Amino acid sequence: MNIFLHELKAYRKSTFIWTASLMAIVVFFLSLFPAIAKEYGEFSKVLEGYPEGVRKALGLEIESFGNVLGFYSYVFIYISLCGAIQAMILGTSIISKEVREKTADFLLTKPVTRTKVMTSKIFAGVFSLVITNVFYLVATIMMAQHVKTADYSSKSIILLSVSLFITQLLFFGIGILISVVFPKIKAVLSISLAIVFGFFVVGMVVATDESNAKRFLSPFKYFEPKYIIAHSKFESEFLIASIGIIILSIFLSYVIYKKRDIHAV
After folding, report:
1. pTM of the full predicted structure?
2. pLDDT of 63-72, one tens digit each?
3. Are 179 and 92 in contact (CB under 8 A)?
4. What span, in angstroms and rounded, lies between the C-alpha atoms of 117 and 132?
5. DSSP conformation class of 62
6. Rounded alpha-carbon distances, angstroms, from residue 93 to 37, 141, 195, 262
7. How far apart, in whole angstroms, are the C-alpha atoms of residue 70 and residue 39?
8. Which residue from 224, 189, 188, 221 is spatially nearest to 202, judged by alpha carbons?
9. Domain residue spans of the chain
10. Most buried pick, 89, 97, 172, 249, via CB within 10 A?
11. pLDDT tens, 175-225?
């Protein structure tokens, strides 16, 4: 039994839906840019009317809002929210679905180790996210080229888009850990939405503070568009933190899954 291919087949519908949705979102938002750039003066006056704290929480940068890269960095915050939900649902359901559908004991009677089961499932989940991000990146670059009103840094827009994949891996890892710690999760969607929106709200609150240390509280603040645009690179401490959380989450998931009792149906 090829678990990897079986899992890919099981995820293909949701992967297609999420990929099409993220592509549609970025195409829709960027299609609004020419009109906004044309009336940038009026828009900037409206934005200036917002309190500074509100602008920071919403990720609004008045100075850069009139160019395609600055505008994309703003809408990207909400695109990353959608991407995080996809990854969280995928990670949370990857193990818990076997318990929920009462197939865990059947799966583990096959001549495969728990390590191989977990590895195959993780690879299938990551591959699904890779597919989503490849198509999303292509759609973003093509749309940005289509609506741009001036030259922009292609490297910056690629780095911003790649940060979506890293953020997804973060939530995917957290989701897997949750699924092995609490294998009997029935409301995967509710749990996933609660966790993702919880981190998103924390990120909005943290954005109003100048302290970098508090940004570690929310994965949504690990890749600041403003920094990426200004320096064309990721902030090393937050990139290291992201990789560390991903590795730790996966490692603990393996350890717990290998030792966990699997109850027969």
Report:
1. 0.88
2. 667 788 888 8
3. yes
4. 23
5. T
6. 42, 31, 14, 16
7. 15
8. 221
9. 3-259
10. 172
11. 999 988 887 777 888 999 999 999 999 988 888 777 778 888 899 999 988
